[in-house]
């Protein structure tokens, strides 16, 4: 049978209905100061049954102090006070507080003749504060407190626990006289202190059990006279504890205990836990002093932690601003971060990192392999909704990741895009630790026939913890969050900037388009008119002399060539806009067609055409035809002055590319100007030698570039030129 | 062969009008040539409306239509003609300065009968106009049912 651990957490320990027998509990109705309930030992201790008597009537001493204290409370939330009272010839330490509209007075008898040196207590506290100031580590502070507390109280052993994130308590400081076993470094599982007890510890800062072997004393009657509910004893100092707890104490070999809470930022940070082998009473004043020390200790720990945190934050801010500076410089934040590995890792004190963005994974330092990171990403995409996610035991979440625990047992991830699985990831290596538990944490309780029993063994139980990293601190998680929001801001800004530029570019393109459109209409017309009227004039005047005819011819020629220029320019500008229709193109055919179109230009010249078989190419047929037409037309043009002109066309495949070479033995050009060859309006020959608009090769290059291809030109002045064009099967990039 | 029906030239540029008329004159067509200077006027002529409500019956043998026109441009005229039940058989030749692919595509989509880019070279221009005039003005036989009667 598996013990029901929750049973412990369900026990209503704040309403036990009974108290420990070393004192008397009275419940007073503040309206008439009447005792409405009392612990069963009241009559014995006070000399007479107090029920239904007015409280002041019971008192020989302190009635006035009690009344004025209660009167001063007003409507405060949970007021409490201590008063020395005299009853039945004896002295009592009175502790009073309010609960559910009633006043609860707890009386602990002061042994006759007990004399406490308060001066001594004050100087103890004073020296504690003095010494404390020189310490900064929590363990050192706790050890000092443990020593002081043991010195003031006389317990056999004082332990200071610190709770970790999983609420396991580790003994970080200890002081003892050797009677009870030493527990320093030992860890006690979270289940030792059930949740509701933890909550009581947070609210009620000091508990004492002078005798673990006590018999509880019932409160009679056990119900609130107005509500009918059991009395809430959360703030009670005599409250009877859970039977499981005293059993636990007895199992630990302790006969008396006292514990004081260390509360930092309203959380139960740790406990000061005092034990004695035999039952032990500690006077209220000393308990007060100890509670005071625990409070000072809490404040000091909080201050130190905040100071440390502030230092860490300042350091992280410095790093963050450096990283921001680098990211702002370039267009690619991922590259910028990857280039600053030291800062990036220092930001969260990580061992390695990775940036998953835009389908890429950039690894920094000894990060896991890319496929392992991809697996983590897939898991996060599926399971993580938080912007920032941290674990120090990745393999407990993603089985199989223990394979690379040496690289990534800890993961801190910040999501930088909700659309794609884009994350900034930090990794921490495995830290193999040996934990010495106070007893086997996997067997915290045993089930008895009637109820749960706490474990009986507190023997050191060593466990090796694997596949975990050092835990991520809150400040480091926050640093990740800050870097995340900085990146998101930068990415967003860059996206906006890109959108703005794209918008501008589109507008400019549109403008350019309508500009070239109207040019194509309006600029061509005047040239047409010039030619037209020149011809009309020629027809009108039949007997023009030679010079007049030459003038008219020149007018016509000039206008025609200007018109061609406009046409070529427009064709060039259209190239950037029309979309490519890619398909297999038979280049043999293309060459034949081009040559046929150029027949007129060849005229009766004898050109030696060497045309090899050409491979197929993939591309836009019309545009490729234009390329061949332009190149062949050039070859024909520039061999005009050559004795025996020759044009060679050859082609071959290289990988996924088709290469075609068109070589001629014409005038060639000077390679010094090859960089100008493919520019718009760049001519390497005089216009009177070779006609043309100077756009042909620019068109060729643009067409090839749009196909993701290229063109090479080689030449020697006077001996010929050689153009090699390359067309890839699949397009690389297309500037559309 | 039917009676010679007029050729409708829609052209806003007076120089182009003069040059086109000169070219058409050269091929000695007997057809009348009606010139309208914008798209709206051309539509009026074709529909026998506005300033043309008294014109003799019958559709032109061909419309030589410039693309860029004031008021209603060439493509709009084309669209209106080709979507008009009574007019859509009238052959329309787009005459344009533009080499714009988009204009060409749209014209064919709208059902143009021919698309001619006006060449800069005047001889070519003459040849083109003359061929158009001869083909559409004389040789092309209109469908028999198209002789419109006044409603």
From TrEMBL, chain B:
Residues with 4-aspartylphosphate modification: 66
What PANTHER family does its record include? RESPONSE REGULATOR RCP1-RELATED, TWO-COMPONENT SYSTEM REGULATORY PROTEIN
**Database matches in InterPro entries:** CheY-like_superfamily, Sig_transdc_resp-reg_receiver, TCS_response_regulator
Q: What is the lineage of its organism?
A: Bacteria, Pseudomonadati, Pseudomonadota, Alphaproteobacteria, Hyphomicrobiales
- List keywords of the entry alphabetically: Phosphoprotein
Domain named Response regulatory: residues? 6-133
Q: What is this protein called?
A: Response regulator
Q: Note the CDD domains from the entry.
A: REC_Rcp-like (cd17557)
Q: Native species of this protein?
A: Lutibaculum baratangense AMV1
Protein's GO biological process = phosphorelay signal transduction system
Q: Which residues form the signal peptide?
A: none
- Record's PROSITE patterns? RESPONSE_REGULATORY
